[in-house]
Each structure stands twice: as C-alpha cells, then as structure tokens.
Amino acid sequence: MMGDPGLPSVVAGPSTAPAPMRVLVAEDESHLGTVLEQYLLARGFTVTMVRNGRLALEHLRAEPCDVALLDIVMPDLDGLEVLRQVREEPLPPEIIMMSGNSSAETSQTAMRLGAYDLLSKPYRLAEVDALVRRAVEKRRLVRANRLLRVATDGGAPTLASAYPPLLAALARAVQQFADGTPLLITGEPGTGKAYLARVIHAHLDSGHQAVPCVPLSCAGRSAEACAQTIFGAEGDGADAHAPGVLEVAAGGTVILTHIDQLELSVQDRLLRAVQDGRFPRVGGYQSRPFQTRIIATSTRDLARQVASGAFREPLYRWLSGGIVAVPPLRERLGDVAALARQMLAGSAAVAGARTGAGPGAGPSTPLGLADEALLALQRYRWPGNVAELQAVLSRAALLSVDGVIRSGDLALQPVAGGDATALSLGVLTLEELEQRHIVETLQRVRWHQGQAAELLGISAKTLYRKIRTFGLQRPGSVS
Question: What does the alpha-carbon distance between residue 106 and residue 406 come to, in Å, rounded to a whole number?
Fold first, then answer.
C-alpha cells in the first residue's frame, strides 16, 4: 500500500484556466487556408498552418494537437493517407476531413478510418467553429480516459496488511461503498488513504469492463480552478466545453484527496450536486447527471473543521455515512514486511528502465531484501508512515548494486541508547524523481516524444532538453 504522494492526479485541473485548444489546418488552397487560419485564431484557438499532407503528418507526429482539419486532396500525401497513419499513433488528435467534391465512397472511407466528421466546401465558418469545439471536447475525454488507463496499468491495487482492525474496516467500507454510500478516509499524512480508496474502488470492477476511477487533490487549488476541474467549464473562448472529473468518471469513482482543503464555495457547489443529483458546468446552464461515487480523504478532523466554520456541516454529514480511520504504520509494524515486498515488486519495472531494458526484454525481477534490512525496517517507528517507507525503498533501489537491498542501502542509522532507528537521507532528490518519471512516461508511449511531452505537461523542446541532460537513450539505440 503506497502513500498518498504516490497517487497520480490523472485529471489535473489548471491553476488558472484550461489549456488552449490546439488545431492543425492542412489546406493547399492558399486563400481558403488563410481565411480558416485567421478565423480560428480570432476565436481563441492555437493554430498551426501547413500546405501539404507530408508536412501535416510530420507535425502531428512531433507536436501534440487536439484537432486536425485535413483537406482530402493535397500534394505529396492526400488527406486520407494522413488520417490512416495518424490514427495509428498512441494518442491521436480528432481528425476533421475537408473536401470540395467528396463522394459517398470517400465519406465512408474517411469515417471507417476514424475521422470525427467530414466538412463539405464551401463551409460556413460558424459551422467549423462549433464542429472543432465538439471534436476537442471528445478528444479531451478520450485523453483523460487514456491517462486513467496509463496510471492504473499495473493492475488492481491490493491491500498488503494483516492488521485485523484495518481489514475489518476495509470489509465494512467495501460493502457500504457498493451500496452507494460515500466514504471518508481519515488518517495521518502518508498512511496510504488514497491508495486504500483505490483498493475499495477496485471491488466495483465487474471483471468485464473497467470502471473509471479519477483521483483529484483539493490541496493548493483556487476555488475557481478546483470548481472547473470537478464540474467542468463552459465559455466562449478557447477554454470552452471542458469536461470535469465528474463527467470523466461517470459510472465510476472520484477520489477527492485533502477534501479538508476544499474551498467553501466549492463545498457548496458539491453539496448542491449531491442534493439535486445534477450539476451544471462552471459558466454553463445545461444540467448534467451526477453519476459518480465519491471517496474523500482528510488528514484533519472534519468535525473540528465544521465547528470552526471551515467545513460545511451538511457535506460532512453526507460524507460521514462511511468513515474509515487508517492507523499509522507504527501501530501495525507487522505489515512492514508485506508492504516492502509489494513496493519492491512494483519497482521492478523502474529497475528495468534504469538498465535500458526494452519492452521485449521480458519481465523484470523484483529486488531482494536481506534479513538485516528487513529487521531494520521493522524496528523503525516510521513518523512519515507508508509514504516514508516508499521513499526509503525507492532510494535503496537506486543504491543497490547486486539486486539485494541491505541495511546500508536504507540509510537508516541506530540511535544511541535504544532499539529505535532514525532516518537519514532516506528520500529521492527532485532530480531523481523527475528522471524516473520521464523514463516511465517515454516507455508508456513507446518513446513518442510528442505524446510524452503532452502527458508530462511540458513542451516537446523542454522534453528533448531533459532527455539530453539526463543522458537518456531509446532502448536499442546506439550511443
């Protein structure tokens, strides 16, 4: 069971406003292309203009894009062939085909190849604007679900514990959640509250179709940004029609971590959605059904937050229908061995990435744990709980040279005059964490740097610079 810091926020809301809509226009007719480009720029889109199919294909492979408008008849490479090749990419944009004299057969071919729609020339610019916005909305929903699968592709999470009170609380929570009761998971920082939420959610999986699960941290977000991320946003500019996590996770679960830090205005909006069973997007009027289960986590006592006026009492009453208190790791030291082995098994893929093993290199072997190292872990009091254990093992995995972690790799040193131990240098540096995150992301998209940059939230140029700085090489490449 991992600590809260290890749980990725899959659908991360913007700090100020949603990202701009990025559109590629491939049109060889100079006048039409210029008119379309200027119109979309005026409507708030970020536009790239190319004049032939080959340039369109090169750009779509190098830079992330939401929507591509492709003329069917173009020099070098026709639009249908560009569509065919782009749809094979890991996270392709939505494609809108344009044609002045398309036949029924051409239209059927375009739709069969995965085009979002077909525009017939001459087209009305207002029609183009509406169609592109709908395509962007679909693409962002697809991207959010793709990120969901990437974040959970290690399989269903399991609880590595033999501690009876925790097992009893988990069994009760699973039953309550299956019956539709929202859950509130409380505990000290780093106890693994968000991971336990995923364990509970995993019991909703039918075994035939994955049920969406979207984690979202409420910490450090402005009221506006948090509301837009949860409920979505409507507007007239490039940030229009952005779905929130309640839509992305429809039929599944939203995990709201650090709900004690949710702004009061957003608490009010969430409470209205719960009471009404419906909600509008921020800035919108159309009511949308509330179809998600909620699991919230908090490190603070929400009852005290209610008493101080920092949390709404009706929302607390709704959440407190099912409460799970996660004990600190020092109260269940018997779980340390199982937790450590679970974490090391999960780190096998990271170890393979560090050695340059490619996808075809076969499964990686988890690191071993020497007896004296296990004893040192079990004697430590873990003030940072499960998150601290994860940090210690992550550091040790990098220091181990023969596939076995020993006590010296843990950087745990005995305290004079007692059996307890104190932690020294047991955390990864920011640079080490960043390098590992970049390597894992590149592997997930088969080293497609444009898609990796988009998943990482940085530009392709920044990613290229970091690859050179860290000396990373694509598996199979020659240095």
Answer: 65
What count of Cα atoms within 13 Å lies in the side-chain half-sphere of residue 432?
13
Give the Cα separation of 395 and 424 in Å (integer).
Answer: 11
3-state secondary structure of 24: strand
Which tokens in the block code for residue 75?
């020099």
Cα 150 to Cα 8, 254, 452, distances in angstroms: 10, 17, 12
Q: What are the CB-based long-range contacts (under 8 Å, 24+) for 408-411?
A: 409/373, 410/373, 410/376, 410/377
Triad 449, 450, 451: Cα angle to 5°? 95
Alpha-carbon separation of residue 281 from 68, 322, 395 (angstroms):
26, 28, 43
| Beta strands 293-298 and 183-186, pairing class | parallel
Task: Give pLDDT tens digits for 405-426.
Answer: 888 888 764 433 444 444 443 4
Instruction: Report whether pLDDT(182) > 50.
Output: yes
- Nearest one of 471, 382, 465 to 420, comparing CA atoms: 382
Q: Are 126 and 119 in contact (CB under 8 A)?
A: no
Adjacent-strand bridge partners of 255: 215, 295
Q: How confident is the model at residue 80 (pLDDT cuts 50, 70, 90)?
A: very high
Angle at 455 between CA 449 and CA 457, to 5 degrees: 100
Peptide bond into 215 cis (omega under 30): no
Q: Is 389 exposed, middle or buried (0-12, 13-18, 19+ CB in 10 A)?
A: buried
Pick left, alpha or beta for residue 90 (phi over 0 → left; psi -120 to 50 → alpha; otherwise beta): alpha
Give which of 461, 153, 196 is closest to 324, Cα–Cα.
196
Cα 450 to Cα 291: distance, rounded to the nearest angstrom: 34
> From its phi and psi, is residue 149 left (phi > 0), alpha (psi between -120 and 50) or beta?
alpha
Between 27 and 107, the higher pLDDT residue: 27
SS3 158: coil
Quickly count: other Cβ atoms within 10 Å of residue 441's Cβ: 18
- Residue among 423, 349, 345, 350 nearest 391 (CA): 423
Q: What's the whole-model pTM score? A: 0.58
Half-sphere exposure of 218 (CA within 13 A, CB side): 24
pLDDT digits (tens, 9 = 90+) for 292-311: 999 999 999 999 999 999 99
Contacts of 263 (CB under 8 A, 6+ apart): 221, 222, 223, 226
Contacts for 426-429: CB closer than 8 Å, 24+ residues apart:
426/388, 426/391, 426/392, 426/395, 427/391, 427/392, 427/395, 428/391, 428/394, 428/395, 428/398
pLDDT at 8 over 80: no
**What tens digit of pLDDT does each residue of 137-149 get?**
777 766 655 544 4
